[in-house]
Amino acid sequence: MTAKSVVASFFAIHLSACCVVQTPLHSDAASTAERAKAYFSVYAARQDFHRFMTFYADNAQLHDVIYGYSAHGKSDIAAFFAWDRGDFSTVASGPILQVTRQVVSGDQVITTGQFNQFHYNGQKLGPWEFVIWQQYSADGLILQQQDWINYSPKKILINP
């Protein structure tokens, strides 16, 4: 065996081993930003609820500060969002939300934007401004989320 073939064999074996080892989905701020961007893209399209829920860790916690609701665990979060509940449609064509700014620091993301107007069970709602804070795990899943959404009309919350 020549030196050239030994080197070629070494690289072939090394390359094969590298392909088998899986790298984590999330390892730095750049991948946190990519995961957050993907999350809001899926959220804005509001078409694939299963994919939307894959962004959350099994033990994730969500707190909607204005609405006054806390969800503990992925199943509670799924029950809270439940895209199949009620009659929903956007008023204008396009996404349900628009991101205006996103700030990433380590494993934390703060996103601001607006939910566009929509119809829900015969009611016209929105537009609603929002601030959403998220903390991501080392493997790129949402561990904690805090929603600050300017719900209007306020009667949906206070029932006068």
Brief summary of the model shown:
The chain has about 160 residues and is an alpha+beta fold.
Structural class: alpha+beta
CATH architecture: Roll
Order of helices and strands: HHHEEHEEEEEEEH
Q: What is the CATH fold-level name? A: Nuclear Transport Factor 2, Chain: A
Coarse shape = globular
Low-pLDDT segments, ≥5 res? 1-27
Number of helices: 5
- How many separate domains? 1
Number of strands: 9
Using the coordinates above, name the CATH class.
Answer: Alpha Beta
Q: Biggest sheet: strands, sense, closure?
A: 6 strands, mixed
Mean pLDDT: 83
Helix content: 25-40%
Lateral arrangement of strands in the main beta sheet? 2-1-9-8-5-4
Protein topology:
Blueprint: H1 3-20, H2 29-45, H3 49-53, E1 56-64, E2 69-72, H4 74-81, E3 88-90, E4 97-105, E5 108-115, E6 118-120, E7 123-125, E8 128-136, E9 142-149, H5 155-158
Parallel strand pairs: 1-9
Antiparallel strand pairs: 1-2, 3-6, 4-5, 5-8, 6-7, 8-9
